[in-house]
Amino acid sequence: MGVRLLVLVVLSVALMVVDARFTLLKPVRSQMSLVLMQSYWITDLPQRLWQGVASQFGSRTELVAENEKLKTENLLLQGRMQKLAALTEQNVRLRELLNSSALVNEKVEVAELIGMDPNPFTHRIIINKGERDGVVLGQPVLDARGLMGQVVELMPYTSRVLLLTDTTHSIPVQVNRNGLRAIASGTGNPERLELRHVADTADIKEGDLLVSSGLGQRFPAGYPVATVKEVIHDSGQPFAIVRAVPTAALNRSRYLLLVFSDNRTAEERANDAAQAQEAQDQQGGTVTPVVPATVPKPVVPATPAAATGPATAPATPAATAPVKPVAHPAPVKPAATRPAAPKPPAAAPASTGGRE
Amino acid sequence: MSRNGWMVWLTFAIGMLLSVSPLPQFMEILRPLWLALLLAFWALALPHKVGMVTAWCLGLAEDVLYGTLLGQNALILTLITFLVLSLQQRLRMFPMWQQSLVILVIFGLAQLVQLWLSALTGNRQPTLALVLPALVSALLWPWVSFGLRGLRRRFKIN
C-alpha cells in the first residue's frame, strides 16, 4: 500500500509541475473537459428548466409590459446611438487632424454563464463559448454595464473567466474625468476593487468613473470598470486608500459579451485605414465613410442580418466569419468588401490593396 | 464477483455534480468534500474495489472541473484514501461519533495540504476558513454513511 501511495504521489507532483510549466498536458485537459464540463451544464439545468417554465406560464399582461419596457429602452438606446455616430465621426476627424491613429472597433459575441467556480476563494466563472467558437486566451469579457474579466482557460466548448475582483487579478485603469492612471486590483470581495499606489495628492474623488486604459495590451481602452466609492487619506499610510465598486454586475450577470479586439499594431491599423480610404476615394467615396467602423456595434454572429441601418455595410463581412475574428482585418471599413488574407502582415496588403 | 459495481460509479458521478452545483455565496465556503466523503465510505466498505487508484483518477477529474493544476486534487484524494485505508480496521470498530472525529482530522489534514499546494501555485487563501469544509463533512459523515449503507444493502453491492 505504501508503495502505491508513493507512486501516486510522485505521479501527481510530476503532473502538477508539468502542468504548471509546460503546455504538454493542455490537450489532455481539454479532452477530459469535453466530458466533465457537462456536469456544470447539468447542475445548471434546473435553473434553465425553471426559466423555461416561467416563460411558458408568464401572463400575457406581464409579457406586454415587458415588451413595452424593452421598446422604450430600445428607443432610448437608438437615440443615444445616433448621437454616438455623430460624435464618433467628429472624434475620428479630430484624430485625423492630430495625425493619430483612428479608434479601433471591437466586435463582440454573446456568451452565457453556465457555472461558478466552486472554490469560494477564487472569482471565476464558466461560460458556454470555447476554443471552437474562436475564444482566445486572455480575451476580455464584458457585461452590459462594464468589464467583467478575462478568459484564463480554454476548453473546446467552454472557457473559464477570471473576474476583476479575484485576488490575483489587476487591471490598468484611468479616471474618466482627468485621465489619471492607476491599477485596480481585486480584493476577493465581489463588490470591491482597490487602486494600488495612488499618491495622497492625486486628483481622485468619490464617484469618479474608472475606465480601462488599454495599457498592458490586454483590455481594450475605454470600457467602464468601476466607480470610486471612497478615498481615505490616512497620514500613517504611504498612499491613499482608494476603494471602488465594479460597474459590471459580477455576481449577477448571466449574459456576457466576449470582445474580439483587433491585435494588429498601430502601424498596421494605420496602413489598413489609409488603404481603405484610398480605395474609397477611387470608388467615389460616398458609402458612409469612417463612421461605421468606429461605432461599437454588437455583432451577433447568428443573425448577421439583424444589424440594420447605415452602419451595417462594413460590419457584415466581419460577422460572417466570427470564428477567426482576432486575425481578421475586417473591422476597418470597406476594405472588407474584398475578403482579404486572413492575417495581414504590415506589408502584404500594401502590395495588393487599392491600387488596381 | 463484483456485483452492481456501476452503483459505486453512479454515486461518484452524483458526488461530482454536487461538488460543482451552485450554492448561495455564504454556503459556498461550507461546501462539503463530497468526493472525499464518498471515497472514504467506499474505501471502508469495499477496500478491494475502491482504492487509491480510483481516488487518484477521481481527483484528476476534479482538477479538470475546478481548473486547478492537474494532480492537485488527485494528490489530496489519494492521501485521504490512504489514511482511511490504513485506519480501516479501527474505523470499522468505532461508533459513529468517533468515526466522525477521525474523518474530521483526516479531512482537516488534507485541507491543510490543499492550502499549502495552492499557496505554492500562487493562490494563497488569506484565511484558515478552508478547514470549515472538513468540519461540515465530518458532521455529514453519519448521514452519508447511513444512506450509502442502505443503498449498499438494497442493491447488494460488493
UniProtKB/TrEMBL annotation, chain B:
Record the organism: Pseudomonas chlororaphis subsp. aurantiaca
What Pfam families does the record tag this protein with? MreD (PF04093)
Q: What is its main location?
A: membrane
Q: What is the phylogenetic placement of the source species in the record?
A: Bacteria, Pseudomonadati, Pseudomonadota, Gammaproteobacteria, Pseudomonadales
Q: Does the keyword Lyase apply?
A: no
Enumerate the subcellular locations listed in this protein's record, separating them with semicolons. Cell inner membrane; Cell membrane
Q: How does it sit in the membrane?
A: Multi-pass membrane protein
Identification of the protein by name? Rod shape-determining protein MreD
Entry function: Involved in formation of the rod shape of the cell. May also contribute to regulation of formation of penicillin-binding proteins.
